[in-house]
Amino acid sequence: ADTHFGSERTLTLSRRPFSTVYEMDEELIKLWNKTVCPEDKVYHLGDFGKYDILKRLNGHVILILGNYELKDIEEGKITREELVEKYGFEAVYDNLNIPELDGIFATHCPNDCKKDEFNLFAHIHGRQLCKRYGLDVGTDGHHFRPISTKDVLFYKEAIEKHYDENVFE
Questions:
Q1: Sequence-ordered list of residues with C-beta below 8 angstroms from that of 142, at least 6 positions apart, any chain
Q2: CA–CA separation, 153 vs 7, rounded Å?
Q3: What pLDDT, in 10s, does the model give residues 48-74?
Q4: How many CB atoms lie within 10 A of CB 147?
Q5: CA distances to 17, 30, 59, 65 from 3, in Å
Q6: Is 28:10 a contact under the CB 8 Å cutoff?
Q7: pLDDT per residue over 74-131, tens digit each?
Q8: What 8-state DSSP symbol labels residue 36?
Q9: Which of 44, 97, 99, 119 has the greatest count of CB atoms below 10 A from its CB?
Q10: 135-145 confidence digits (pLDDT tens)
């Protein structure tokens, strides 16, 4: 989530360690492709950025809409259908219970999380990686690469079984 390909604003506001947007994009693409195999399924939890970069990325990408995509749709710049047909996303959702992760709920904004379930969210750019109810899977909190299913399940177990109130104070 929160790749924000092509975004000068994100480079600056998220204090990403790159000199230029071009350098940021190229490094994100390189790290993505080192992490994701061509046949992998990837859930991107929104704020993708320049949609045409998708063709340079490994994997079959399912997009959970972020606030930037929703704004583009609202302003008539793109449609959900174009995201699939023109740019190549496998599917587009507002949010989703991910079947491969036993129905873990995925959404872009933490405010949309289901507080009684484990959630994957984004939007906050690694500013609070773990919450009582889930994990920020945005690229800023995970060394600028997608997070694996194995790592998601590791964090889930840690949050649910090992973190106490002191972690969230």
A1: 126, 151
A2: 30
A3: 999 999 999 999 999 999 999 999 999
A4: 20
A5: 14, 13, 15, 13
A6: no
A7: 999 999 999 999 999 999 999 999 988 988 999 999 999 998 899 999 998 877 888 8
A8: S
A9: 44
A10: 999 999 999 99
What value does the CA radius of gyration of the chain take, rounded to a whole number of Å?
Answer: 15
**Long-range CB contacts for residues 29-37, cutoff 8 Å, separation at least 24:** 29/53, 29/56, 29/57, 31/143, 31/144, 31/145, 32/57, 32/58, 32/145, 32/146, 33/57, 33/58, 34/145, 35/145, 35/146, 35/148, 36/146
Place of tokens 């969210």: 121
In degrees and rounded to multiples of 5, residue 167 shows phi and psi of -65, -35
DSSP one-letter string for 51-102: GGGGGGS-SEEEEEP-HHHHHHHHTTS--HHHHHHTT--SEEESSEEEGGGT
**Strands 91-93, 60-64: pairing kind:** parallel
pTM > 0.90: yes
d(CA 109, CA 46): 9
- 8 Å CB contact between 132 and 169: no
